[in-house]
Amino acid sequence: MSPSKLDSTDSFGHEEASVSCSKPENGCVDSLSIFHSEKAVEELLQQTPVAGMDEHLIEFSEALRTVAKALRRAAEGKASAQAEAAEWKRRYELERTRNIQMERKVSGNNNCEMLQHWWIRSSLDNAMDMLRIMLPCLFFWEVGKEQNKRIAEARMAEQFSAEKNGDIDCERVKNSDNQSMLQNESNEYSETGCMKHGIWSHEVLRDRESDSNSNADRNKIMRKASFKLSWWCNGENGDQHKHDIVSFERGNITTAERSSKQISLKWESDPQTVLILTKPNSVSVRILCVQMVRWLRERKKLNVYVEPRVKVELVAESSNFSYVQTWKDDSEISHLHMKVDLVITLGGDGTVLWAASMFKGPVPPIVPFSLGSLGFMTPFHSEHFKDCLDSVLRGPISITLRHRLLCRVVRDAAKNEYETEPFLVLNEVTIDRGISSYLTNLECYCDNSFVTCVQGDGLILSTTSGSTAYSLAAGGSMVHPQVPGILFTPICPHSLSFRPLILPEHVTVRIMVPFNSRSPAWASFDGKDRKLLAAGDALLCSMAPWPVPTACQVDSTNDFLRSIHDGLHWNLRKTQSFDGPRDRDL
Fold first, then answer.
1. How far is CA 64 from the centre of its chain?
2. How remote is the C-alpha of 165 from its chain's centroid?
3. Which end of the chain is more exposed for a tag (fewer CB within 10 A), N or C?
4. Can you tell me the distance from the alpha carbon of 370 to that of 348, in angstroms, rounded to the nearest whole number?
């Protein structure tokens, strides 16, 4: 740049400064209003500084840069505060809903069993409490009796010495009597306090010995610190299930081996109603459905429910199927779990997912027949359906409790906390970038703890039953379906250190689209019901209280291992030949 241009620019800057200073009321206000927007600030900062510029303009530009940072921090703080408020409100609603459900559950048909269980446990607890109360009280009673004996001996010694010296102090004897009375009252108060409150921090165990032992032997006490284990989940006390997991008698913790036991279902009364769900557009499934409906009705005398589409097909084939029942609208589907004793699916894993999605609450036991492709959740074969159903209806049978995820969408601009009804997911919920070409930017929280910021194609929150589906394709681990947990699997993360996680069942995972994200995200639930997540929106996922019970051919572990061997050919390779070079015998 030529010197003439520099001079002209410098003079122009001085002229502007003089004009703005000569008109403090108008000029200065107009010049400041230009920089109120962040865009104007960035444009000013991007300009190349001119040689000879005054130092106060440089300081002013630094101040504007600081203001821009403060504005961004304030926006991020506001977004974080809104998300925190929505989370606390959600917890309050969940606590309220859980309390209502617990009240209804207590007033249900299991009152007799619950009262009997409570009576047995309360009797044992009362007996243990009485022992804990009586042992310390007996100890303090013995100590108090010993102290009274020593005080009486001391008083008699004082009286004997006073009589011997001929100087008996009546006042001293009276004070001694008062002191002994106070001591006796304090001992009695400690004993009554023991019996009344019964709160002690230690279990006191004392060997019963005769009074002829020495004082050192009498004071020999064995102490073991007592404690209590409590199960907490999001600030909620879950103490009622602790004895199913561990036992902690006298301060020793031992596991109850609950997770290693198979689950068995035994009918207390014979099933009366069966629901059959079929894969559409399949001739083999339609033929099998006709045979199964006729056999269940004629041989087992069961009431049969089918979908409206299937009933039309059955009636069109023969008018003898008029006894088959169905529903008219979606409102009747919500009451199916009160009518149906057993669900039979004819198809693949997708048919099992469809059957689970029909029940928004408790799910009846499902008997899945394999008529699909892979069949991780369909262990039964259609060729022997009569023998299979006969053994299932007779019972007992092994079942697998497949956990589901409860998902809710929270809108940033919504007046209510939740946009729609919750989604129940048996496989996984996927948050991806959709049709956008930008990286997905997602902030992830586990309860109140920040987990990470996902930058990649997306994120998968999967159940253990869905560990062999999309999560497996994205690099996640295969997990036994009865292991309670949430799989946290990234999709093509732009980081070499981003590995999948398995979170415990009691946590609540919150996925939020930050305000500085370049594009929105899309959420899909078991591959359906895609929802747009704009900036500020969040997705909350937790373990649903209603699992999906599926019948096992052998047991849950055998069926799981057989499915990954047959469906995925897991670790299948040729066996190494035995002939060849070997290690020499040592």
1. 46
2. 82
3. C
4. 6
CB neighbour list of residue 368: distance below 8 Å, 6 or more residues apart:
344, 345, 351, 352, 377, 378, 379, 380, 550, 551
Q: Name the nearest CA neighbour of 279 among 287, 267, 268, 269.
A: 287
Contact 193, 117 (CB under 8 A): no
Tell me: pLDDT of 263 over 90: no
SS3 state of residue 346: strand
Give the residue ranges of DSSP H helices in 358-489.
385-394, 470-473
Q: How far, in Å, CA of 294 to CA of 300, rounded? A: 10
Q: Are strands 232-233 and 254-255 parallel, antiparallel or unpaired?
A: unpaired
Question: What does the alpha-carbon distance between residue 485 and residue 473 come to, in Å, rounded to a whole number?
Answer: 19
Output DSSP code: residue 134. Answer: H
* CA distance linking residue 502 with residue 510, whole number of Å: 15
Per the structure block, which two tokens stand in for 320? 């003898």
Q: How far is the C-alpha of 129 from the C-alpha of 28, rounded, in Å?
A: 81
What's the Cα-to-Cα distance from 204 to each of 136, 199, 219, 225, rounded to whole Å? 6, 12, 12, 9
Gap between the Cα atoms of 340 and 363, Å rounded? 9
Nearest in space to 542 (alpha carbons), one of 94, 79, 93, 85:
94
Q: Both tokens of residue 390?
A: 């006969």
Residue 390, pLDDT above cutoff 90: yes
Q: Is the pTM higher than 0.90?
A: no
CA–CA distances in Å: residue 385 to residues 293, 339, 494: 12, 23, 49
Long-range contacts of 26-30 (CB under 8 A, 24+ apart): none
Q: Is the preceding omega at residue 520 within 30 degrees of 0, hence cis?
A: no
The CA-CA-CA angle for residues 9, 10, 13, to 5°, reads 85
Distance (Å, whole) CA 100 – CA 502: 31
Give the pLDDT of residue 70: 81
Average pLDDT of 538-561?
Answer: 93
Q: Who contacts 442 (Cβ-Cβ below 8 Å, separation ≥6)?
A: 431, 453, 454, 458, 459, 511, 512, 513, 514, 521
158: exposed, middle or buried (C-beta count within 10 Å: 0-12, 13-18, 19+)?
Answer: middle
Q: CA distances (Å), 51 to each of 2, 60, 102, 305, 411, in order?
A: 11, 16, 76, 86, 51
Average pLDDT along the chain: 75
User: Is residue 215's pLDDT more than 80?
Assistant: no
Q: Which residue has the tokens 């995972």?
A: 509
Q: How far apart are CA 492 and CA 472, in angstroms?
A: 13
How many CA atoms lie less than 13 Å away from 20 in the CB half-sphere? 11
pLDDT per position as a tens digit, 484-537: 899 999 999 999 999 999 999 999 999 999 999 999 999 999 999 899 999 999
Task: Using alpha carbons, list the distances in angstroms from residue 48 to 52, 294, 356, 392, 446.
Answer: 12, 86, 64, 81, 46
Q: Is the dihedral of CA 291, 297, 300, 303 positive or negative?
A: positive
Q: What is the phi/psi pair of residue 61, to 5°?
A: -65, -40
Three-state secondary structure string covering 466-484: HHHCHHHHCCCCCCCCCCC
